[in-house]
Amino acid sequence: MTEFLSTEFKEFQHKLQFFLNENINLSSEEMRSKSLDKGFYSISHQSFIHDGPATPLEMVIARESVASLGILDHSNIIGPDPGALINCSEEIKSTYLDPMLKGEKKASFAFTENDFQNPTTGELNDSSVIINGNKSYVSRAIESDFMLVVLNFKPENSRFVAIVDSNSEGISFKKTFESLDGSNHSEVTFENVKIPEMFLLKNVQAATQNILQERLEMSAISVGLAIFTVNELSRKLLEIHRSGGSLSDREGIRLKYSDLRINTYAARAMLYRTVALLEKSENAINEVSATKVFCTETAFNVVDSAIQLTGGQSLIIGNNLEAIFRKTRSMKLAGGSNEILRLNISKGVFEFDSGIL
Q1: Which of 90, 207, 210, 326 could form a disulfide with 84 if both were Cys (CB 3.0 to 4.6 A apart)?
Q2: For strand 146-154 and strand 107-110, is the pairing parallel, antiparallel, or unpaired?
Q3: 165-190 pLDDT tens trace
Q4: Contact present, 176 and 185 (Cβ < 8 Å)
Q5: Which pLDDT value is given to residue 62?
Q6: What dihedral angle (degrees, nearest 10) is formed by the CA atoms of 86, 72, 49, 267?
Q7: What is the pTM of this model?
Q8: Quick check: 275 and 327 in contact, CB under 8 A?
């Protein structure tokens, strides 16, 4: 837990929390500008604590701190990490990576196939790569300036990542829709899309590693939102109720409230133990999956119970708890549904003898 953080991590946490409290009412653009200026936007590749990118622990502290104030959109405070673009060529760095890390360009990650029997392919033609295929559920595709597209490269069927400008000829966006939490997604079709060979990246592992990072990120956000919700609930239960006295005086309410605090405490302990394993470079795929399942479900149950305890006012669109309810519900599916992750955890134990308790 945070009590055991080193002095430098505690100082980082304090600086970020002070920054957030001071600027929480700024517009998105103003917040991004301020965050860039203070260095928080760039922490994924420029740590506050040491040279190089932030450690998993630093990123967890950052995500949890933002969410614990009820902030649902992290994108204007904490920028993206390099992902597959790490150690790229100078041209890719200046054209894509640097603008992305400064918030000047947005990227989307095209990973999920629409038809797994016919995956998206790339084929070399002179000094160009021709891409054909169909990706489903590409988040923020219509907002992006470029996409990182995972594809099977012919003829050897190797896996690569291609950098593709979103306005390239041959790209079409279909079935664009908005999910419960307000984020947008699209089905993206690539029909003879041509890119220079130099924009084909072999670092597919760094790209797919994003999925593991995404699950840890959602765990940290879930814990932060659970903390915010419990704090909001504490305040509301202490208010004078129309029936006289406060709801916090009632034993039944206290029992339910205590369960929310207990489960939030357990989720936070689980989150920090898992990130401690990652800090030691342990293989913690199973632990990250378990943490994502437990933390997202805990956050959802906490806000669901908080709404039940505070009444219909919390269901009005625009209310903090209503927005958090939608966000936490979507995270149970995002980054791999919790049911699939449960199966993966069992598979990791029974077939690969991985995972610890």
Answers
A1: 207
A2: parallel
A3: 999 999 999 888 888 888 889 999 99
A4: yes
A5: 97
A6: -100
A7: 0.88
A8: no
